[in-house]
Structure formats: C-alpha cells, structure tokens
Amino acid sequence: MSKYIGPVCRLCRREGEKLFLKGVRCLNGKCPFDKAEAKDYAPGAHGKEAQFRRRGRGARGGSDYSRQLREKQKARRIYGVLERQFARYYKAALGRRGLTGLNLLQILESRLDNVVYRLGYASSRAQARTLVTHGHFNVNGRRTDVPSYVVEPGDAVTVREGSRKCTYFRALLEAGEDRPAPSWLSRDFSGLSGQMVSLPARHEIEAKLNEQLIVEFYSR
User: Fold this and answer.
1) Less crowded by CB within 10 Å, the N or C end of the chain?
2) CA 177 to CA 44: how far, in whole Å?
3) What pTM was computed for the model?
C-alpha cells in the first residue's frame, strides 16, 4: 500500500494551518510552520506564484470546488487515510442514518489508530499507527494489528501483556497521564486499557473540519 513518506510540515503549509501531525513536536516552538513565511504560500517551486494568482479571491483558493477539495484533503491528512479508503468511508457514512458528515467523522474517529491516540497511548496518529501495526494492542482480547479496524461502542482496547515490558510503555507509565481522554472513551491508564463508551458527538471531535464541504465535494 502506498503512503506519504515526505515531510509532513509540507502538508500543513499546503492546507494553510497546523494539522498537528507530529504530536507534541508541533508544540515545542520549533515547528517549521510557525515561521511567518511558511503561512504565506503553499510549498513547492510554484507556491509563491500560485499565491499571487489567488490574491483577492480569499484564502488559498476562491472557487467552491477548491474549498471542498481542500477540506477533503485536510481530513485525509489529519487521519492519515488514502484516497480510495476515504471514499469508502464516505460511502459507508452515506448508508447510515443521520447526518452524512457527522457519520463520516465518527467513522474516522472510530479507527483503531485514532482511538489509541485519543486514549493517550501515542503522541500522534502516525505513532499510533506504528504501534498498532507492530501488534502491541488487543481489541476485546484479540491481537489486532490493523490500524483501520473500526472500533465499536463497548469494545475494549488494551496493550498486550507482552508489550507492557517494552521500554516505550514503561516510560509512558512513569511519565503519567499527559492529556485527558475524551468523554466517549473510558480509560484505565495504570492498566494501559480503554473502552469505547459511545460514538463521539460533534463537539467531542477535535479536528477543525467543515464536514459539509466534504459532503458537497462527493455530491457533485
């Protein structure tokens, strides 16, 4: 499966805002996006030229299609999802009852790598994907190494017994809890476990996304 392996700070510059793809490293004051010039234009050889062409038409693209595309790309990059997979998530959201945009965000939030991140057992979604891929987590007592696994309400996510001896998880316990878990997840930090209590409500989803623009993009 292909994946983006370039510098993630370019993705933040392309979207015109910090996406916190490096976790705590985005908060240490040395993030390249914090430089004034990084916010003025998109990355690449033609970034400045494109910015001059867009001047007077609003921020980073003036057409409806451009805004819809950028919102969809931003959501993909925040959650680390490829194009085809994202389209499948939208199709699944469309088949559910309720608001399609909210359904889509709930599916993305229910991914195992995101749940691990939101429980505080990883500093970023990218790190959570690596931990899951290496087989450090069980879901309902079964080893699960698929980051895209969709966790359902009532499912329990725990660090495997053998993985608790790893340096990373020992250091995690020694450091203590550094951020609270959202209300739709229950967490036992000392036991390195957690459970999905319910699907997240819209106000409980951290990502700054306009899901309606994504729905409009796929509704063209």
Assistant:
1) N
2) 39
3) 0.81
